[in-house]
Amino acid sequence: RTQAEMAHTCRGTINLSTAHIDTEDSCNIVLSNGGRTYHLKANSEVERQRWVTALELAKAKAIRMRNNQSDDSGDEEPASQSDKSELHGPLKTLSSKLEDLSTCNELIAKHGAALQRSLSELESLRLPADSGEKIKAVNERATLFRITSNAMINACRDFLDLAESHSRKWQRLLQHEREQRIRLEETIEQLAKQHNSLERACRGAPGLASGTTSISSTAKGSVQSAKGEASDEDEETEYFDAMEDAPAFITVTADPKHHRRSGSNLSGASEGHPEDWNLEDSVFESSNQSSYNESTSKDLLPRKRRRTRIPDKPNYSLNLWSIMKNCIGKELSKIPMPVNFNEPLSMLQRLTEDLEYHELLDKAVKCESSTEQMCFVAAFSVSSYSTTVHRTAKPFNPLLGETYELDRLDELGFRSLCEQVSHHPPAAAHHVYSRRGWTLWQEITIASKFRGKYLSIMPLGAIHLEFHSSGNHYVWRKVTSTVHNIIVGKLWIDQSGEIEIVNHKSKDKCQLKFTPYSYFSRDVPRKVTGVVSDADGKAHYVMSGTWDEKMECSKIVHSSHGSTSTEGKQKTVYQTLSPKVLWRKYPLPENAENMYFFSELALTLNEPEERVAPTDSRLRPDQRLMESGRWDEANVEKQRLEEKQRAVRRRREAEAVEALEEGKDYEGYIPLWFERKVDAVTGELICVYKGGYWEAKDKQDWSVCPDIF
């Protein structure tokens, strides 16, 4: 207790720091302090000695506390006392443990002397009658000695544990300070090297006039840089890698007037002349002029009027931890979830939502250069993540055999079909045909893990895109999505990793890096950067932007090698023309925050339509009930559908066992509209569209569709 506490204690309290501890006989203890005395009785001498040992340890601790309080009662201000308490606390605790060891040592010495005297008396015995009593006394002394020794050993163990834990803490703090100092030194060094590299690049760039000696006169944009390691611990984003094994680079926006006058002196890093970049009729120039509400093709019919809102999301409370605590480490698709965690769209509809910025591919068809076309494909691959920035709810897991069509052939020029082709693991096949000159197909398997604080979603599978006229075949894969603050705090989503887009005809490549969020990063959040290069590895365009807002493309007019970074990688300085915006996110509809943050396209995905297949996601009853705000009924319906699917799976498993016993082959589930083939480009087994769906829709012949709802 502190001095202030001792002045306001309850009646009958004894201050141990000034108390006297004594023993009357083998079982009684006398505890006195001034005019107050307590007589305590133990059941045995062993128990009495345990109490005496504990009281003496407590007395020693009380004396140390009193001395420490008197030592600390200086002229310091209260604020300074609280600042030093965190530092002095561990030291006082360690000193206290050392004092405990000293007290135990004194007790061992005292009991050891008593034991020694008893042994001496035993040796001087002559009468056998006295030997039994003395031997008993020796045994009791030995017992007391053992108890005190155990107390000392326990105190030693506590001291060691405390010392080790604080040693690790101090070591981490020291290491953190060292790393911070090293980072600061490296940052200053890198800034100095960047400055020198930019000066050399500006002085050494061919075709630049004398006005280029000043960086401020040639650099109209900011220096874009980052580091090459895509990890959550990377808190320095000074440079980024153009490709996985490529050197880091810096981009400087050059004055296009100088390059227009001296185009013949360019290094040839880009196709054509740099002045082509400024042509008003170029594909790049018109890349940001259309929107979801506009039609750019004369052969398309006027748009059908579609819904622009859905019922507002109800405000239901839910004990999240009571559901999540039994889900840690499990596959997300195997966790029974109420619809409270969902949004009223299925995974098939979310997959179709990637086509919201399909006009990027329509523009890519018009590109004469494969590297220009790659820029639009890269922007399209990034645009598919723009809808996820506020969409923290989980889409419905499709039932096996569930389909979803989006027929916009007359309005937007494309038609899309998705089918759930596997349930464990969940896999969806997707096929899109556009009469404007491109076809896209993919089979995506979702691997997800709940880790307590965050949820990782890893889409597995390749996305294929082929342009009809040129035959350019692009392949890429999605990055990892992470949902943070699952249990406590506001949910937020981050995308991290790298996307490598490869044109398997021309061998052009684009390596995009999604920089993970870091509290200490000086970059804009959700940053995406990359470089488009040809088959020879020559860089043509620099891609930059964010996955939730826009992507820009800058044409490279000159490149030069800069200094070597601290990791031993050589940085490349790219001089580029002014960036062109290839893609910009559409604004969300009014009241989107109450409609699950759905985009304009997402609001129409679950709109009822006629003539769709009976397995279409629009007809799923639990999803429709949730969209209408009837969540309790939706939960009941969801359980019914899942149990119905389990019954079908059990029947299929029984048929497989029966076929095995009879020595027959069992094919298992066969997709309705897709078939598995080995992809000629990647060599992977993938589900591709085999045809027949749109013909069945025209005839309204859905006899092959199972009853899944």
Question: How would the blueprint of this fold be written?
Answer:
Blueprint lengths: L2 H4 L13 E4 L4 E6 L2 E6 L3 H28 L5 H46 L4 H77 L10 H4 L30 E5 L2 H6 L58 H5 L17 E5 H6 L6 H7 L4 H14 L10 E3 L6 E6 L5 E9 L4 E8 L3 E13 L3 E7 L1 E6 L5 E5 L2 E5 L7 E12 L5 E6 L12 E7 L5 E8 L3 E15 L5 E7 L3 E5 L15 H6 L15 H7 L3 H31 L12 E5 L6 E5 L3 H7 L10
Parallel strand pairs: 4-20, 5-6
Antiparallel strand pairs: 1-2, 2-3, 7-8, 8-9, 9-10, 10-11, 10-12, 11-14, 12-13, 13-15, 14-15, 15-16, 16-17, 17-18, 18-19, 19-20, 19-21, 22-23
Membrane topology: Peripheral membrane protein
Keywords: Coiled coil, Lipid transport, Lipid-binding, Membrane, Phosphoprotein, Transport
GO molecular function, one term: cholesterol binding
Structure in words:
- This protein has 14 helices and 23 strands.
- With 709 residues, the protein is of the alpha+beta class.
- Among the domains are: 55 residues, Pleckstrin-homology domain (PH domain)/Phosphotyrosine-binding domain (PTB) (PH-domain like), CATH 2.30.29.30; 359 residues, Beta Barrel (Porin), CATH 2.40.160.
- About 12% of the residues have low confidence.
